Give the backbone structure.
Amino acid sequence: MTENNEKTALILLGCPQVPVQTSMALYLVHGLKEHGIRPVIAGTAAARKLMEVADPDRHYLEEMTDLDAAIDEITGKQRDFDLCFVFIHNDSGIAYAGTMAYISKARLYALLFGEHARDLAGEIEFPCEVVAAKAVHNPMPLKRKLDEVMQWAVSKR
Amino acid sequence: MGCLEALKPEIILSQASFKEAREYIKKNVREYHEVEPGYRIFDVHIIGVPPLYVGVEGEHLIFPYTKPCHGTFVVKVPGGEELARLRARKGK
């Protein structure tokens, strides 16, 4: 939450090797802004660059930050978020989501996609809302799941 | 890897899962300390689901280092001041 009581969401991007991530992240940013929630995007340099190139006039993107910088701010109690969405398609994604579950008070959403989305979902042993779909090139299966959850997320915030 | 890279880490295990890294440290390093997710060593954070361990072997630290695209590595580096900070924490 910001000083003016604006709700905030951290979107934590994983490795951008699976195509649907950038598309779904922009879609999520759009949905959050529609509901008056300010998105902050954290990811690797490549993941952020993919977002920046896709939105050159910054219609959707506002604040973007490095993964370690975001974790530093949260562990240092300088900042936290109302919502946190973690994009996951590999074991590292699970590790980052587990870290967020521990260090942040945000309501956590694990967005699992890629070939092994359902298997990875079985690895989650921490409290969060799981959104999983086998989506690699076609974002629609994950979009449908996210649409259902977004209704819930914005009504519960 | 920034500061960690400058220490020329020895890579003990590469492209593993964070659970495999945890098990490796627990089984192969006599002295290890449990740390919370997000614990910072040099310029990196320990990432994963508890329990997470950082090992000590002589003057070196052995810990998991997670990269978003390449999984978790177990690395060994000279501990320096980080070693004393780790040992000063409660518990093992």
